[in-house]
């Protein structure tokens, strides 16, 4: 839901064009909820979700660490006040010169998922700590992150042994259960895999100390999602089951769950039309679409709550599309979206739960439309 602070900002500032407004009070509340839910896990905010300097500065001041996918994100986190020991270079696909630059900046923790990546880290960041990402199936996630990243547990064992042989410090295992993961039990199987890797490495004389449990914590869209507390209980239970009383250091990497519900996009209806006299659905065209920041509507994976000034009127299923000259720029068509039948050109709508993965997905100037403007309050 849009907070009163966001509503007041839009009413007084009247920003032109589509824009995202992020309420830092919500971000701070979410950080507190994660810290309370998993008090023994270090929080590494996933910078890619929303790298606004104001968000990063707030989280750095609150004591957050940062999961970074590039040198640029590392520099953003450091500019916000994070020291290098609070940064993980969590991308498993890195240029060797970028590893060297991160190492020069003092970053000492790197993700890998194959021996080829280990070799790059060993050359560019000698003696650094590495953790190996393990594949998960991503079931229950609305935005899966499996297949492209990670390796099977048996290979993770070989990768970490090889890392140690090249002078790196084999530190642990990571996984990601999929973004917008609504199953609180999804971490169990991945933690079991991590425990297996720990045992196999111990038999080879290598003591791992870290499980990076990734992100996946959801934000509320059209359906309620479990609380941070519910995830914390489930994850701690899985750690206890699979590691007994020797629970290792743990990391979580919330991104969407940290900032998703803190942001609201204000958009405008540009056109309402039908494709034929017998068309069952109206087409509602907004001044923002897939290329303006709503890329996660791809395959209609994320269905954002949309509120309008006419929400008390009769509703009718609509196709919702963006403004660009690309036929892929349709947000919801397979599952038409109910909107008021009185909605018309010039009406402003609020697209809620858009604090994560919107500004960073926005095209630079497709069709000449400027990138999504962002205001942090």
UniProtKB/TrEMBL annotation:
GO terms for cellular component: cytoplasm. The modification N6-(pyridoxal phosphate)lysine is found at residue 48. One of its GO terms (biological process) is putrescine biosynthetic process from arginine, via ornithine. Its EC number is 4.1.1.17. The active site is at 325 (proton donor). Its cofactor is pyridoxal 5'-phosphate. CDD domains: PLPDE_III_ODC (cd00622). The keyword Lyase applies. SUPFAM superfamilies: Alanine racemase C-terminal domain-like (SSF50621), PLP-binding barrel (SSF51419). It holds the Pfam family Orn_Arg_deC_N. Keywords: Lyase, Pyridoxal phosphate. Residues 26-259 form the Orn/DAP/Arg decarboxylase 2 N-terminal domain. One of its GO terms (molecular function) is ornithine decarboxylase activity. It is an enzyme of class 4 (lyase). The keyword Lyase applies. InterPro entries: Ala_racemase/Decarboxylase_C, De-COase2_N, De-COase2_pyr-phos_BS, Orn/DAP/Arg_de-COase, Orn_de-COase, PLP-binding_barrel. Signal peptide: none annotated. Pathway: Amine and polyamine biosynthesis; putrescine biosynthesis via L-ornithine pathway; putrescine from L-ornithine: step 1/1. It catalyses: L-ornithine + H(+) = putrescine + CO2. Belongs to the Orn/Lys/Arg decarboxylase class-II family. PANTHER family: ARGININE/DIAMINOPIMELATE/ORNITHINE DECARBOXYLASE (PTHR11482), ORNITHINE DECARBOXYLASE 1-RELATED (PTHR11482:SF6). This is ornithine decarboxylase. It comes from Aureimonas glaciei.
């Amino acid at each position: 839901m849009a907070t009163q602070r966001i509503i007041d900002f839009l009413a007084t500032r009247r920003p032109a064009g589509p824009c995202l407004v992020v309420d830092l009070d919500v971000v701070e509340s979410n950080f507190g909820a994660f810290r309370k839910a998993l008090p023994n896990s270090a929080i590494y905010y996933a910078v890619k979700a929303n790298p606004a300097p104001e968000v990063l500065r707030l989280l750095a001041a609150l004591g957050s660490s940062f999961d970074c996918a590039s040198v640029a994100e590392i520099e953003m986190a450091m500019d916000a006040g994070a020291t290098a020991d609070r940064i993980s270079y969590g991308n498993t696909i890195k240029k060797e010169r970028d590893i060297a630059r991160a190492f020069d900046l003092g970053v000492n923790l790197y993700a890998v998922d194959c021996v080829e990546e280990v070799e790059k880290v060993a050359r560019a960041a000698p003696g650094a700590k590495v953790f190996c990402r393990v594949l998960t199936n991503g079931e229950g996630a609305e935005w899966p992150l499996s297949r492209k990243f990670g390796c099977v547990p048996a290979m993770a064992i070989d990768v970490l042994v090889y890392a140690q042989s090249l002078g790196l410090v084999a530190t642990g295992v990571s996984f990601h259960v999929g973004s917008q993961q609504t199953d609180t039990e999804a971490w169990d199987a991945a933690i079991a895999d991590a425990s297996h890797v720990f045992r196999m490495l111990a038999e080879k004389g290598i003591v791992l100390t870290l499980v990076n449990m990734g992100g996946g914590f959801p934000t509320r869209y059209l359906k309620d999602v479990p609380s941070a507390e519910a995830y914390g209980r489930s994850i701690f239970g899985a750690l206890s089951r699979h590691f007994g009383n020797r629970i290792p250091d743990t990391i979580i990497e919330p991104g969407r769950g940290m900032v998703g519900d803190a942001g609201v996009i204000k958009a405008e209806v540009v056109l309402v039309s039908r494709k034929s006299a017998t068309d069952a659905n109206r087409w509602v065209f907004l001044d923002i679409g897939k290329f303006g920041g709503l890329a996660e509507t791809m395959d209609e994976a994320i269905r954002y709550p949309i509120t309008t000034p006419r929400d008390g009127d009769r509703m009718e299923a609509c196709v919702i599309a963006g403004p660009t000259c690309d036929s892929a720029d349709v947000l919801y068509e397979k599952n038409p979206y109910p909107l008021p039948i009185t909605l018309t050109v010039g009406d402003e709508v609020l697209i809620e739960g858009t604090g994560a993965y919107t500004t960073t997905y926005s095209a630079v100037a497709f069709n000449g439309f400027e990138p999504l403007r962002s205001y942090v309050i």
